[in-house]
Amino acid sequence: MSRTRRLAAILAADVAGYSRLLGADEEGTFERLKALRRELLDPKIADQHGRIVKTTGDGLLVEFASVVDAVRCAVEVQQAMAERNTGVAVEKRIELRIGINLGDVIVEGDDLYGDGVNIAARIEALVDPGSVFVSNTVYDQVRDGCPLSLRIWASSRSRTLPGQYVSTVSTGSAILSPRAHLR
Predict the structure, then answer these.
(1) Which of 30, 50, 59, 75 is deepest in the core (most CB within 10 A)?
(2) For residues 116 and 46, what is the distance between their CA atoms, to the nearest angstrom?
(3) pLDDT classification of 176: cutoffs 50, 70, 90
(4) In angstroms, rounded to a whole number, what is the distance separating the alpha carbons of residues 109 and 173?
(5) Average pLDDT of 71-88?
(6) Bigger pLDDT: 162 or 33?
(7) DSSP collapsed to 3 states, the chain
(8) Calpha distance 54→162 (Å, rounded)
(9) Quick one: which of 87, 81, 94 has its CA closest to 28?
(10) What per-residue confidence (pLDDT) applies to 128?
């Protein structure tokens, strides 16, 4: 199998509290997650020209050729998730954490590997439910020319990602993270 490299925007997403949700209602959670993929996630990803690289039950790894498309997709998903969760009991809400990185990846078949992917996954692990965090490379690309009217709500050096800054992304109408200081 041939292996190549390319620059890609990588979006890593995961359901916060998935094990708790499954423990409370396994079949209902599974059905709600399938509906979420079918009705919201897959269409938004396709609308922004993303490619689902892999799924992990409660998680997704998505590749975008454009970092603006990746951020737009993440913001639109989180806004739609907030609307979907209106009126849903807190303990039953499906909330996503989304991290985005722009980096060099190794492509082998349909899969992606390397630091570009690993950093996106590590950023996602830092994210508050319902939020989008981006790496400094993503921030540098979207801060001045992104057509989304984004604001960087917080930006700080990450202790868990050496040499990286992590920023919380928001739109003018909705802050996608309540936390002003990141780890």
Answers:
(1) 50
(2) 21
(3) very low
(4) 40
(5) 93
(6) 33
(7) CCEEEEEEEEEEEEEECHHHHHHHCHHHHHHHHHHHHHHHHHHHHHHCCCEEEEECCCEEEEEECCHHHHHHHHHHHHHHHHHHCCCCCHHHCCEEEEEEEEEEEEEECCEEECHHHHHHHHHHHHCCCCEEEEEHHHHHHHCCCCCCCEEEEEEEECCCCCCCEEEEEEECCCECCCCCCCC
(8) 26
(9) 94
(10) 85
pLDDT tens for each residue of 103-133: 999 999 999 999 999 999 988 988 889 988 8
Using CA of residue 22, residue 25, residue 29, residue 30, what is the dihedral sign? positive
CA–CA dist 133, 141 (Å, integer): 14
For residue 159, give every residue at least 6 positions away whose Cβ sits within 8 Å of its Cβ, in sequence order, or none.
Answer: 183
Query: What tens digit of pLDDT does each residue of 14-23 get?
Result: 999 999 999 9
Supply 85's token pair. 């969760």
Q: How many residues does the chain have?
A: 183
> Dihedral, CA atoms, 35, 39, 42, 45, nearest 10 degrees?
-140
Contacts 24+ apart (CB under 8 A), 24-31: 24/91, 24/92, 25/92, 29/94
Give me 37's structure tokens.
Answer: 């993929």
pTM as predicted = 0.84
